[in-house]
Please model this.
Amino acid sequence: MNTTFADQVIEFNKNLSYTGTLPEGFEVLNPYLDNPETLMVMQKFYHKYYDDSAQRKFMIGINPSRHGAGVTGVPFTDTKRLESICGIKMESARTHEVSSVFMYDMIEEYGGTDLFYKDIYINSPFPLAIVRKTKSGWLNANYYDDKELFEAVKSFMIESLKKHISLNLDTSEVFVLGKKNADFISKLNKEAKLFDTITVLEHPRYIQQYKSKEKQLYIDKYILALKKQIP
Model:
């Protein structure tokens, strides 16, 4: 039996493990090991939207947040939108994630979840959550927040991106969320030659937090960029 796109993503997620070193004060969280229900809802999601072998465009975030994919296992998807829009309920957690609000408003205008996920696959160059120890406790961290951290995870990120690409992703153009993220993806791309063109889109969190009055302009920008080559 042929394995579908969904089967391959699920297999990738099940086998995720970061065994490299990290600078002091940083830790990696693996949502699939921390909560058995995360593994279940992630599988339901991919079987629902990716149970085929179609080629898709690749959209790249930074790394999962503790309240989004760090809980649901689905990029830019908190438990609220996982249930209300994707129809998949999570019993063990309730989360609200700012980026998820923008992403699902954009997806609705794109034509809805069925159409969007048929065309687009979202993941991160570092597909596990990173947290940093502070005086007030553990907080979300980005892979590029610390030079040592980036150097430590760089080879793992290249390997992860190659595995994503092998799922049958279109490498002629990649859509990178966040300008700083794009700078670092460009460095990786120079080294590993993964994508022909990098198209940069503002990160959903930035839009929701700082540009909410102009949100519609950003939604339009996303959709124009993503649909421009789809006949």
